[in-house]
Amino acid sequence: MEEKKMIKFNEQEKIDSVNGALALRPQINEIVDEICERGYSNICWLGVGGTWASAMQATVHMKEMSAIETWAENAAEYLTTGNKRITKDTVVIISSVTGNTKEVVDAIKKIKAEVGATVISFVDAKEAILLDLADYKISYPINEQLKFFMVADRFMFNNGEFEDYEDMYAEFDKYLAQDLVEVEKQAEPFAIEFAKKHWNDEMHYFVGAGNQWGATYSYAMCYWEEQLWLKTKSITSNEFFHGMFEIVTKETPVTIYIGEDAQRPLSERVANFIPRICANYTIIDSKDYELKGISEKYRKHLSHHVMHAVNNRIDVHMEIETRHPMEIRRYYRRLEY
Amino acid sequence: MEEKKMIKFNEQEKIDSVNGALALRPQINEIVDEICERGYSNICWLGVGGTWASAMQATVHMKEMSAIETWAENAAEYLTTGNKRITKDTVVIISSVTGNTKEVVDAIKKIKAEVGATVISFVDAKEAILLDLADYKISYPINEQLKFFMVADRFMFNNGEFEDYEDMYAEFDKYLAQDLVEVEKQAEPFAIEFAKKHWNDEMHYFVGAGNQWGATYSYAMCYWEEQLWLKTKSITSNEFFHGMFEIVTKETPVTIYIGEDAQRPLSERVANFIPRICANYTIIDSKDYELKGISEKYRKHLSHHVMHAVNNRIDVHMEIETRHPMEIRRYYRRLEY
């Protein structure tokens, strides 16, 4: 009997994509090393929507290891409130698929005109205004978190806060791409079941923490709401207990992402409690996926990639179950607003 | 004909409460001045749930005016991820109703034991562990935002970033308490209508920005979810356009809070767009309330108080319409978790 082929899954393409991103590291390091040589005061990850979510992930990752001042700045908020912590000595890092996201373009224009901070720009497209405006630019598709984390890790390494840096990336270079496609394969039967069970939920709750939080927020908003037109709420694992959980009863659909970084106990706390009040919950734990060749101590750096790989398979099957093509938008970039 | 009496509205008690909070200012200033005299590196507003939301409000308020490094720290996240920006030179500010919130107690214990930062503690209760643990303590009920903003404003004044400080507080001392009860009175007919219309919503969306955002987040979670057991989602005005709005259609209940601080345009953008896609929206604009005696330029400092006063009246009528007493909890502090 022939094995059933996974749809929308080009294994080689996925492997090449991750390896191509990892291969940007020498280029990234050259940029970061030059900035560190020159000196800088703080690091600002700037975005909006999904890229702001990635910025939150980079920030919590750095907070766990580093004394460098760093934060996630929402581009639209910067344009109104401003931020006096952004000076000529600040490093601003952005990422954009199209390279023309309005709020980010306007924010970077303002920063270049009024402040003169150093801007590092990642854009999927080959040509874009957000590349033109940057001091340092890298054009390469997808893998946003990987790009951000490579930048963050190099800054921390140069600051003497990441002893194992070379060793860790040696493992990633060798194993990560293959490991992530293996995660997708392992997740496939679960994803099929999950989509069949939840495609028609009136409302779905997603809970996460640490480097999974930005991904949880953006998965709920940028995938289920934006691309599947399904109602969701996302909440951090810690805040779950401060009000939100009062509306959870037996049939409320709740999905909890558990990673392996420092905030793992916060999500475990939700996972341990939820069976008492809910019979419609799902736990997605990065620990359940092998990641062959990766040392135990580096797994916490990869939890969000595991989650992303699992979600990739959920998306494929949600799109089928809902019969809702994920590329259509009702309003986004279709209306003036 | 006798005027109908507003229920759960003791005007004199409310006036005394706000004036009592404003009267803490000399005591607050003595604390802040002493810290400024000694020197400090940064300011951390630490909380969880509703108090973390207030911390976000204090932070955005400061960001608009100040170059001081400041941020909102979630107590539960601090306990796991830590934060190397918190040092012995940091000022940590907390607020708690009971003074025994587990995550905050543990976080402050850790900070005092491992770091030795300066802790300013506001607690509603007269005696509490969070008062015992603090370097500076103030015991006074409710008015959390007012307490936080008085601290923030004094730090900015001492840093030469708030020229009008004395003039502004002279107006607040004279007019604010009365103005806020007038807001409640003005909001009453609206609140009655709103509660009648929305008490049975399957799901309600709250949108806000700037110093209204923390309040929007906590109103949705700590009031409707926790106290009324109604499903809500809150989203910032800017992020509304980055995914969430795709699920809004004609009958989706959406409430937009518009304040008068720098992020006002972000909420106006939602208000201007929403009629095209939704016929079940509500706009609550602080500008619609008079605030007699308060200069135009200081109104932006009060938007969140106006919103809070309006929400007070909504709560009263939601409690009646839902026949759901707001003091009952299903799980919060009733189960082990």
TrEMBL record, chains A, B:
<dbReference type="InterPro" id="IPR001347">
    <property type="entry name" value="SIS_dom"/>
</dbReference>
<dbReference type="GO" id="GO:0004360">
    <property type="term" value="F:glutamine-fructose-6-phosphate transaminase (isomerizing) activity"/>
</dbReference>
<dbReference type="GO" id="GO:0097367">
    <property type="term" value="F:carbohydrate derivative binding"/>
</dbReference>
<protein>
    <submittedName>
        <fullName>SIS domain protein</fullName>
    </submittedName>
</protein>
<feature type="domain" description="SIS">
    <location>
        <begin position="31"/>
        <end position="162"/>
    </location>
</feature>
<dbReference type="Pfam" id="PF01380">
    <property type="entry name" value="SIS"/>
</dbReference>
<dbReference type="GO" id="GO:0006047">
    <property type="term" value="P:UDP-N-acetylglucosamine metabolic process"/>
</dbReference>
<dbReference type="InterPro" id="IPR024713">
    <property type="entry name" value="Fructosamine_deglycase_FrlB"/>
</dbReference>
<dbReference type="InterPro" id="IPR046348">
    <property type="entry name" value="SIS_dom_sf"/>
</dbReference>
<dbReference type="GO" id="GO:0006002">
    <property type="term" value="P:fructose 6-phosphate metabolic process"/>
</dbReference>
<dbReference type="GO" id="GO:0006487">
    <property type="term" value="P:protein N-linked glycosylation"/>
</dbReference>
<dbReference type="InterPro" id="IPR035488">
    <property type="entry name" value="FrlB_SIS"/>
</dbReference>
